TrEMBL record:
EC number, UniProt record: 7.3.2.7
Annotated SUPFAM superfamilies: P-loop containing nucleoside triphosphate hydrolases (SSF52540)
EC category name: translocase
Domain ArsA/GET3 Anion-transporting ATPase-like: 7-303
Catalytic activity: arsenite(in) + ATP + H2O = arsenite(out) + ADP + phosphate + H(+)
A Pfam family: ArsA_ATPase
Protein name, as recorded: arsenite-transporting ATPase
InterPro entries found in the cross-reference section: ArsA/GET3_ATPase-like, ATPase_ArsA/GET3, P-loop_NTPase
Taxonomy, superkingdom: Bacteria
Coiled-coil regions listed: none
Similarity comment text for this entry: Belongs to the arsA ATPase family.
Any one GO MF annotation of this record: ATP binding
Length: 313
C-alpha cells in the first residue's frame, strides 16, 4: 500500500450511510496487509458484532490474526468513570455526605453527557497508551455530531484540566506553606496532571496528519452532502482536514425505469460532490447486491477499497 495511511483513522458521517461497513472493511484491509489493527466502535448502537457475526464487548476480541475489535460499553465506562470521580470527591467531605454524593452520581450516570465523557476517556486511553501493540486503530463513530465532538472536546478538556491544575497548585502552595499538605491534595494533583498530559497528547495526535486521519462516508444524496459540507466546515474551524471522503452505495446503470431514474438522480449528486469537494481525496464505492456480512461480504468492499488505493498510485 504505497499511499501513506495514518496510524489512527476516524470514520464518520450521517446515520445510515455505511460507516460501520466501511470501518470494518478498512480495518480488515489493513489487517490483511499485516498491520496489527484494532477496530473500535464508539456508537452506542453497536453494529460491529453484527457485521462480523461475533459477540463483541468492552475488551478487545480477536477476529483474525491481525484484527481485534471492541464495542465500548458506555454503561460500564460511566460506572468506572463515576466511581473514580466519586472516590476523589469523598476525600473532601465527611462520611455523613457519602450517601448524598452517591445519589447525585447515580442520577447523572444515565445522562448523555456522562456517557459521552466516559466513552471519550476510554477511547483516549486506548489510543495513547504507551505500550500499545496496535499498528493501526480504526474508530467507527456515531453519527456526525458525535464525531465532531471527538475533535473539539480534547482542546476544551485540555484547557479545563490546565485551569484546575493551576488552581490546585496554588492551593497546594498555601497548604505547603502552612505545613499541612495532605495526601488527598497530592493525589488530586497527580490525577489532574495525568489527565492534562493525556488530553494534551491526544490533542497533539489529532493535529498530526501523519498520525491521525478523518474519513467521512456519504451517499450521493442531498442530505448526506449537506451534512458533510457542515462537518468539513467545522473541521476547518479546528484547523483539521479530512483524509478522504468515501462516496458509498453508488448504483450501477439499469434499464429498469425506477432504478434508471434513481441512477440519474445519483449522477447529478455525484457531479455536485466532484465540484463541491474538489481537491479532496474521493473514494467511490458501488452499491452491493447483497448485505455485507462476515469475512466474505467484507471482502467485496475490501476489493473496492484496494481499487481506490491503486487509482491513487
Amino acid at each position: 500500500m504505497s499511499l501513506q495511511i495514518p496510524r489512527l483513522l476516524f470514520v464518520g458521517g450521517k446515520g445510515g450511510v455505511g460507516k460501520t461497513t466501511l470501518s470494518s472493511s478498512i480495518a480488515s484491509l489493513l489487517a490483511q496487509r499485516g498491520e496489527k489493527t484494532l477496530l473500535v466502535s464508539t456508537d452506542p448502537a453497536h453494529n460491529l458484532g453484527d457485521i462480523f457475526e461475533k459477540r463483541l464487548g468492552n475488551e478487545a476480541l480477536a477476529l483474525s490474526e491481525n484484527l481485534h475489535a471492541i464495542e465500548i460499553d458506555p454503561r460500564q465506562e460511566v460506572k468506572r468513570y463515576i466511581q473514580a470521580v466519586a472516590s476523589d470527591t469523598k476525600r473532601f467531605v465527611s462520611a455523613n455526605s457519602y450517601a448524598m454524593l452517591d445519589n447525585y452520581y447515580q442520577s447523572i450516570a444515565s445522562s448523555g453527557v456522562a456517557q459521552e465523557s466516559a466513552l471519550f476517556d476510554r477511547l483516549i486511553r486506548l489510543i495513547i497508551e504507551p505500550d500499545s501493540r496496535w499498528d493501526r486503530i480504526v474508530v467507527d463513530t456515531a453519527p456526525t455530531g458525535h464525531t465532531l465532538r471527538l475533535f473539539t472536546l480534547p482542546k476544551t478538556l485540555k484547557e479545563w484540566s490546565k485551569t484546575l491544575l493551576s488552581q490546585q497548585e496554588r492551593g497546594g502552595k498555601i497548604e505547603s506553606a502552612l505545613g499541612h499538605l495532605s495526601d488527598s491534595s497530592s493525589n488530586i494533583m497527580l490525577r489532574l496532571e495525568e489527565r492534562y498530559l493525556r488530553y494534551s497528547a491526544f490533542n497533539n495526535r489529532l493535529k498530526d496528519s501523519k498520525e491521525c486521519g478523518i474519513l467521512f462516508v456519504l451517499n450521493p444524496e442531498h442530505l448526506a452532502i449537506e451534512e458533510t459540507k457542515r462537518a468539513l466546515h467545522s473541521l476547518k474551524h479546528e484547523s483539521l482536514k479530512p483524509y478522504a471522503l468515501i462516496i458509498n452505495k453508488i448504483m450501477p446503470p439499469s434499464h429498469d425505469p425506477f432504478f434508471a431514474k434513481r441512477g440519474e438522480s445519483q449522477a447529478r449528486y455525484l457531479a455536485e460532490i466532484d465540484e463541491v469537494f474538489k481537491g479532496e481525496r474521493l473514494w467511490k464505492i458501488p452499491l452491493q447486491d447483497e448485505d455485507i456480512l462476515g469475512r466474505e461480504g467484507l471482502g467485496l468492499i475490501v476489493h473496492e477499497l484496494e481499487r481506490c488505493l491503486k487509482e491513487e498510485r
